[in-house]
């Protein structure tokens, strides 16, 4: 810091504490709601301090079946699988296509690059119905394949790997070739180990991405067996006006948002790297 | 587009390597997008038995439809408000964290995690807070004489989705502003201090101009976010209501097409949005030079 | 071990840029040949063509009895040492040395034996389990050498292997490479832009310029009888003085000898100029600058009527001061004649 001004330091902390309060506020309210019994929330001013019912509420969420949604454990399982398949799938197909584009020269290479680039311009939100039609025609509704496969193409991950491969010295590949490594061996023995941190950073970002998916699962699943948490908590909340069990709903919401939040908090370094690098 | 100085001589392998990505792209991205374009020029009879080419009819109707034009206006207002609010707050917070040496990381962690809250959960959280029967904010607002009911009042519904969408986006903007601030060389700040500029003057004359690439980049990203990624926020809070007051362009594609089954109009709306994303993406890649040159 | 033969080798890049114009070169078994030239002269390209990292547009390259034009680098049985060493950053030193052998299916005991031997010769045994980033520049260089040695290939290819080292280390490693190559007797091609390195290492020196070979020969032959103006200027430090004949004649007057017809540029090595009087072209000038480099001194002398300053080398300390006038002689037998048009030597 250039100079020491106590009032400015005070202002800095004041601003930040205020910011943190704003950011934490909605989740704090949800957590408080999750700790109370059903009666505390049904009327008037909701309490601002934690109650003692958290464990009961959590147990209820996990054990009781609710109308219109699948059991919570099943939705959590589906969300987990969906996030994992999307993460692994995106990384796998992106790293190999980036490898092809950087380490080979073949007719159609530039075309392939632009086709991948185009996916950036076609978010699922703008092609809801025709994409749904394709998935329906392929018989992929209500399946993990339908939930994940259409989301697996990734321009950003491909660009990230391409960028990273370009920074690897050319000589490394040449040395490997002189050492008798073909394209597969080079990829497995040299490139993959060197991409470790990039893969880890992408895992963090893509897991969060997969976990957050809402519109797509809503479109392709009608069978509650395939509902994900994001759909489930939304459906639970939607009936809350008729049957207000806010403590249970908020307990479910808090648990549904917890896995990615914990990932961001405990893998902050990888998370920041992943987010900043994919936007390059 | 560059490759390595030397490349592997294989003939078939590279095609095998790009195939999975390309097949998925073609089946689930390009083909549906093409279908959307195609059906935006067609009309399907009520039984779905035959289609006929109708040219620009759907587009023509859209641009004469007051509901669509109103949706455009609302989307613009929403996008602008969210971009300004979330970027403004994020810049203030990032500047503050950048001033601190030790406690900065702790604050960062506390400010970053909402990134991991999904739009739909963000919507539920704020919907709960603003809920007219049990919500805490309507209770507080009542003391100020405000009668809050976003289920009836369109303006209040708009405020609700703006708050929820902005809240969710603060962390993202914060992260990029902080990265941008940290790449401003400390020596420039010191030189300005020696030249007699105080902290606020330094910020506006030195730091903020150097941050402009980040700011521009975030503007594009935020527009993209408010246009498309806020679907969950809206679906969880207002579902486009009351009386269309929060029916943004993307939500309208969904509600007209998936719910209302008005295929032609929904496709035309899709195509218009596609053009919009294409423009944003091109701007982002062509004109955003985020590395500051000295 | 094997000889390497290049016949009519050309390299044309897409866009019709010719990097190598028809090169013929025979490298004998066990010989260390140095390719030297300014950057962009094609020396690295030629080396990489021998390695199989660049395709060959025209001509043939054979290693031993085999034409290797269409062979993968790995099939050519060569080893290469790169300028930036190209060590695999995620592998330990041992794994770096083993990698090429493993890929060839060398038996485990044989790998261990060769690695131990290379580690002993190069004195890198203490670092075998470290990662490259934990090593100094000189140590990395040794590991890169080790990776080549363990392979026991037909030929070593060196691509400016010392240019990332500081001057002192570069001198040490140069001697070590020479010693190693002599004892292993492996055919070697060595690329450098440093003419001192080239002179001291080479059995034979190949000077390249603009994608062509200017001259091939023993270093001292090239120094004594440069075949072209380019070689004359490139080999030797400080460089040869090159003067147009007409200018020199105008200044020298009666002492100017008759030269071979066609020679319109005259060259003389700075250390061949004789201070004081004697037989030859007598000149006098003003000392502009003296560079004492220790054992000898370099004098930059301005002669009235000649555009560029002449460089003279005086053994020991200079016995004149700056701005003083001196007389000196260019002995006739030390003169080199060149033709300006063709750039070639005229005898």
TrEMBL record, chain A:
PROSITE patterns: ABC_TM1. Residues 76-267 form the ABC transmembrane type-1 domain. It is found in: Cell inner membrane; Cell membrane. Part of the ABC transporter complex UgpBAEC involved in sn-glycerol-3-phosphate (G3P) import. Probably responsible for the translocation of the substrate across the membrane. InterPro entries: MetI-like, MetI-like_sf. The complex is composed of two ATP-binding proteins (UgpC), two transmembrane proteins (UgpA and UgpE) and a solute-binding protein (UgpB). It comes from Devosia ureilytica. Keywords: Cell inner membrane, Cell membrane, Membrane, Transmembrane, Transmembrane helix, Transport. It is a multi-pass membrane protein. CDD domains: TM_PBP2. Its main location: membrane. Gene3D superfamilies: MetI-like. GO terms for biological process: transmembrane transport. The chain crosses the membrane at residues 7-34, 80-104, 111-135, 141-161, 198-216, 246-267. GO terms for cellular component: plasma membrane. This is sn-glycerol-3-phosphate transport system permease protein UgpE. The keyword Transmembrane applies. Belongs to the binding-protein-dependent transport system permease family. It comes from the Bacteria.
TrEMBL record, chain B:
It is found in: Cell inner membrane; Cell membrane. One of its GO terms (biological process) is transmembrane transport. Residues 72-284 form the ABC transmembrane type-1 domain. SUPFAM superfamilies: MetI-like. Coiled coil: none annotated. Its main location: membrane. The chain crosses the membrane at residues 12-31, 76-98, 110-129, 157-181, 202-221, 268-288. It is a multi-pass membrane protein. Keywords: Cell inner membrane, Cell membrane, Membrane, Transmembrane, Transmembrane helix, Transport. The keyword Iron-sulfur does not apply. The keyword Iron does not apply. GO terms for cellular component: plasma membrane. InterPro entries: MetI-like, MetI-like_sf, UgpAE/MalFG_permease. Pfam families: BPD_transp_1. The complex is composed of two ATP-binding proteins (UgpC), two transmembrane proteins (UgpA and UgpE) and a solute-binding protein (UgpB). Part of the ABC transporter complex UgpBAEC involved in sn-glycerol-3-phosphate (G3P) import. Probably responsible for the translocation of the substrate across the membrane. Belongs to the binding-protein-dependent transport system permease family. This is sn-glycerol-3-phosphate transport system permease protein UgpA. It comes from Devosia ureilytica. The gene is ugpA.
UniProtKB/TrEMBL annotation, chain C:
Coiled coil: none annotated. This is Sn-glycerol-3-phosphate import ATP-binding protein UgpC. InterPro entries: AAA+_ATPase, ABC_transporter-like_ATP-bd, ABC_transporter-like_CS, ABC_transpr_MalK-like, ABC_transpr_MalK/UgpC-like, Mo/tungstate-bd_C_term_dom, NA-bd_OB-fold, P-loop_NTPase. GO terms for molecular function: ABC-type transporter activity; ATP binding; ATP hydrolysis activity. GO terms for cellular component: ATP-binding cassette (ABC) transporter complex, substrate-binding subunit-containing. Keywords: ATP-binding, Cell inner membrane, Cell membrane, Membrane, Nucleotide-binding, Sugar transport, Translocase, Transport. NCBIfam families: PRK11650.1. GO terms for biological process: carbohydrate transport; glycerol-3-phosphate transmembrane transport; glycerophosphodiester transmembrane transport. It comes from the Bacteria. It is a peripheral membrane protein. Residues 4-235 form the ABC transporter domain. Belongs to the ABC transporter superfamily.
């Amino acid at each position: 810091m250039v100079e020491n001004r106590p009032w400015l330091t005070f202002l800095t902390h004041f601003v930040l504490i205020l910011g943190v309060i704003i950011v934490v506020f909605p989740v704090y309210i949800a957590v408080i709601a999750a700790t109370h019994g059903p009666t505390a929330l049904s009327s008037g001013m909701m309490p601002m301090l934690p109650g003692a019912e958290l464990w009961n509420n959590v147990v209820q969420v996990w054990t009781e079946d609710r109308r219109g949604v699948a059991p919570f454990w099943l939705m959590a399982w589906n969300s987990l699988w969906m996030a994992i398949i999307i993460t692994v799938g995106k990384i796998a197909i992106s790293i190999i296509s980036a490898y092809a584009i950087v380490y080979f020269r073949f007719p159609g290479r530039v075309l392939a690059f632009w086709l991948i680039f185009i996916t950036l311009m076609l978010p699922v939100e703008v092609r809801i119905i025709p994409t749904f039609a394709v998935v329906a025609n392929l018989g992929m509704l209500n399946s993990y394949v339908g939930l994940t496969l259409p989301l697996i193409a990734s321009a950003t991950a491909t660009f990230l790997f391409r960028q990273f491969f370009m920074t690897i010295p050319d000589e490394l590949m040449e040395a490997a070739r002189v050492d008798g490594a073909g394209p597969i061996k080079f990829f497995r023995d040299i490139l993959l180990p060197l991409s470790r941190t990039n893969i880890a950073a992408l895992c963090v970002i893509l897991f969060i991405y997969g976990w957050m998916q809402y519109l797509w699962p809503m479109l392709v699943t009608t069978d509650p067996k395939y509902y994900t948490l994001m759909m489930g908590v939304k459906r639970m909340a939607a009936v809350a006006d008729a049957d207000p069990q806010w403590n249970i709903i908020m307990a479910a919401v808090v648990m549904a948002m917890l896995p990615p939040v914990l990932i961001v908090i405990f893998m902050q370094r990888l998370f920041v790297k992943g987010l900043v690098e994919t936007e390059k | 587009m560059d490759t390595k100085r030397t490349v592997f001589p294989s003939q078939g392998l590279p095609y095998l390597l790009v195939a999975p990505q390309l097949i998925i792209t073609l089946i689930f991205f390009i083909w549906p997008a093409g279908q959307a374009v195609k059906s935006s020029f067609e009309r399907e009879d009520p039984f779905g038995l035959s289609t006929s080419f109708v040219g620009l009819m759907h587009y023509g109707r859209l641009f004469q439809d007051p509901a669509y034009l109103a949706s455009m206006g609302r989307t613009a207002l929403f996008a602008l408000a969210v971009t300004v609010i979330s970027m403004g707050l994020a810049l203030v917070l990032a500047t503050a964290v950048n001033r601190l040496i030790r406690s900065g990381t702790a604050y960062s962690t506390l400010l970053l995690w909402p990134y991991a809250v999904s739009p739909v959960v963000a919507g539920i959280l704020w919907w709960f807070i603003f809920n007219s029967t049990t919500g805490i904010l309507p209770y507080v607002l009542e003391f100020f004489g405000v009668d809050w009911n976003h289920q009836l009042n369109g303006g209040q519904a708009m405020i609700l989705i703006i708050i929820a969408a902005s809240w969710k986006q603060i962390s993202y903007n914060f992260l990029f502003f902080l990265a941008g601030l940290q790449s401003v060389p400390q020596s420039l700040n010191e030189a300005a201090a020696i030249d007699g500029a105080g902290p606020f003057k330094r910020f506006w004359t030195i730091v903020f101009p150097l941050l402009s690439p980040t700011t521009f980049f975030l503007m594009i990203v935020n527009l993209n976010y408010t246009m498309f990624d806020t679907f969950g926020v809206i679906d969880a809070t207002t579902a486009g209501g009351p009386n269309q007051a929060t029916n943004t362009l993307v939500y309208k594609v969904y509600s007209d097409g998936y719910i209302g089954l008005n295929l032609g109009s929904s496709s035309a709306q899709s195509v218009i949005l596609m053009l919009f994303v294409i423009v944003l993406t091109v701007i982002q890649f062509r004109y955003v030079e985020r590395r500051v040159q000295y | 071990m094997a000889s390497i033969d290049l016949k009519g080798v050309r390299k044309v890049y897409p866009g019709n840029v010719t990097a190598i114009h028809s090169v013929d070169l025979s490298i004998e078994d066990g010989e260390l040949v140095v390719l030297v030239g300014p950057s962009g002269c094609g020396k690295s390209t030629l080396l990489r063509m021998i390695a199989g990292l660049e395709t060959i547009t025209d001509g043939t390259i054979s290693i031993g009895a085999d034409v290797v034009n269409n062979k993968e680098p790995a099939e050519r049985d060569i080893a290469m040492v790169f300028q930036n060493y190209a060590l695999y950053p995620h592998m330990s030193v041992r794994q770096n040395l083993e990698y090429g052998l493993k890929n060839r299916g060398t038996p485990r005991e044989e790998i261990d034996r060769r690695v131990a031997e290379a580690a002993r010769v190069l004195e890198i045994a203490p670092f075998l389990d470290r990662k490259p980033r934990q090593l100094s520049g000189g140590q990395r260089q040794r590991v890169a050498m080790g990776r080549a040695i363990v392979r026991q290939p037909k030929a070593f290819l060196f691509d400016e292997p010392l240019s990332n080292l500081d001057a002192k280390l570069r001198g040490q490693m140069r001697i070590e490479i020479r010693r190693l190559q002599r004892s292993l007797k492996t055919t070697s091609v060595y690329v450098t832009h440093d003419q001192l390195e080239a002179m001291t290492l080479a059995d034979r020196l190949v000077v390249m310029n603009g994608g062509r070979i200017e001259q091939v020969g023993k270093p001292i032959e090239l120094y004594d009888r440069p075949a072209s103006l380019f070689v004359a200027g490139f080999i030797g430090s400080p460089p040869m003085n090159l003067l147009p004949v007409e200018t020199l004649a105008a200044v020298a007057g009666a002492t100017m000898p008759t030269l071979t017809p066609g020679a319109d540029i005259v060259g003389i090595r700075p250390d061949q100029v004789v201070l004081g009087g004697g037989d030859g072209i007598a000149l006098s000038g003003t000392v502009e600058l003296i560079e004492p480099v220790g054992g000898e001194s370099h004098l930059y002398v301005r002669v009235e009527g000649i555009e560029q300053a002449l460089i003279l080398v005086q053994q020991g300390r200079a016995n004149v001061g700056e701005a003083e006038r001196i007389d000196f002689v260019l002995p006739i037998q030390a003169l080199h004649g060149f033709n300006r048009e063709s750039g070639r030597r005229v005898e």
